[in-house]
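Reading group handout, session on sequence-to-structure problems. Before we discuss, look at one worked example. The prompt was deliberately terse, the way you'd type it at a terminal:

> structure Dienelactone hydrolase domain-containing protein

The input record follows.
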Amino acid sequence: MVGSECLANPPILNASTGVGYLTNIAGVNSYVSGSPLAILTIVLISDIFGFEPPLLRKIADKVANHGYFVVVPDFFHGEPYNAENASRPLNSWLKDHNSTKGIETAKPIIEALKRKGASAVGVAGFCWGARTATKLGITKLVEASVILHPSSVTVDEIRGVEVPIAILAAEHDSFSPPKLIKKFKQVLDAKPEIDSYVKIFANVSHGWTVRYDPNDPKAVKDARKAHKIMINWFDRHLKK
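And the output record:
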């Protein structure tokens, strides 16, 4: 079961925000930012609120400013979770939008990006998106991954990851509490051939990197720290 943390601070959806533009990639509506001539691509996988929230697109623009072509696909095909629709409980919605379907959506997108010239693809998953990002690292469809305040990711899935992975977790998070994150670290430490980084951020809660209050200086600072680590991780493993 999924608790209230996943629903905290629901964003205002606005498909017109961001400096990028909307396009279709492998049949999936996507927000893209950065030069299409960039040979390094980052795919951002959203939380349950989909690809329209302004803060998510702001993150995409920030990553693009570091020389990447950034793609934020609509993994929910026009049906993000609507916190105001009480007639559709979250657990019911999740049955129709699980990580298996996430992989089915992601695979042709990544293949299309590589056909168009992407020499390497990194993936970052937020909350719901973390499990799909983790599974992409198991299949080696991407060259590096970052998962931020993950939801539903298991120890066995982390054990199966075959690409460099960074895990950015929250101190206050019932989905992936510090005890579980420490197990993730133990598993990764036992695989020194796979570069990994695990950090538990103090005094933050689930969703803090993508659903923060832009008018709260501390919240902005905490989110920016995570974004910087994410970008540095991609720089380290994709800009070779």
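Points for discussion. First: The chain has one domain: 4-238. Second: Residues 4-238 form a domain with the Rossmann fold fold (CATH 3.40.50.1820).
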